[in-house]
Amino acid sequence: MKFVVLQFPGSNCDQDCFHVIRNVLGCSVSYVWHKDTSLGETDAVIVPGGFSYGDYLRSGAIAKCSPVMSAVHDFASQGGLVLGICNGFQILTETGLLPGALVRNRDLQFVCEHVYLRVEQESSAFTGASRTGDLIRCPIAHMDGCYYIDSDGLRELRANNQVLWTYTDRDGAATPASNPNGSIHNIAGVCNRAGNVAGLMPHPERAAEDILGEESGLAVFKSMLAFHQSGKAFNAASSAS
Amino acid sequence: MKARIIITPKKAVFDPQGKTVQNTLEHFGHQGISAVHVGKFLEVEISGEEDIEAVRARMDEACRRFLTNPVIEDYTLDIIPS
Prior knowledge:
The structure holds 2 protein chains of 2 kinds. By secondary structure, chain A is of the alpha/beta class. Chain A has one domain (2-238): Rossmann fold (3-Layer(aba) Sandwich), CATH 3.40.50. Chain A is 22% helix and 24% strand. In chain A, strands 2-1-3-4-11-10-9-6-7 form a 9-stranded mixed beta sheet, sandwiched between helices. The longest helix of chain A has 13 residues, at 218-230. Chain A is globular, with a radius of gyration of 16 Å. The mean pLDDT of chain A is 96. By secondary structure, chain B is of the alpha+beta class. Chain B is 34% helix and 27% strand. Chain B has 2 helices and 3 strands. Chain B starts with a strand and ends with a strand. The interface between A and B is medium-sized, with 19 and 12 residues.
């Protein structure tokens, strides 16, 4: 399986993702610069974390206008797998590839801590290596990570099983205290309606090998690999958010 | 010509900055404040002699597509002739 990792001015998790994909997952990976207009031959796109364009205007607002994002749109509309992590999640909501938006954290503070994520459904291309209810422990590091969507949008997310990960406590209970940023219904990550584009604020790539003290985040990347190896494919016509 | 754009969080979006400013105003004795909304102000300077309505239409599109996120923000746009 071949991945590409996008690089914007201000990306700072690109090398972490690259390392995990190549050295831990054992897949082929290359970088694509934001000014490129083609992704080349690839099976998946990672939009990494960081502070693209200094978060000017809004987090992800400038990055969504980068030339490479047209190629990402085309790739996603053809059923390609796209995963946005942290700032990458913000960019994908700004582009409209994912529903909702990320706003300033409830407590107006940058949060940098470990959280527990509960896998909400195991049938997605990004969670297939887990079981529903499994917990992933990984770091978060963001200022604008409060997931917002209006009530109609939330109903649609629920109806279509688009909520993939929820912030919980260590026992898997989604409580107000285990919600680090005020996200609606403790939502940490979602996918589009077709299921081929996903985003989450936490950093699974920073919790993907034993030497770092935590490896449960690797499940996200393993899921993408397993989906690809299964030979399943998304219908291009249904791959809109 | 100038475009002046005021961007505010949608009323349905919790605005912790606005709430904190409101609480602080009340702490200083200001009464009767029902809400505070903290947003952004953009001033765009436009050169050349263009029709004001054409500029308004162009800036309105920029607001919808780029300068604001319609999922979470509202805006007002004023065009100020030179």
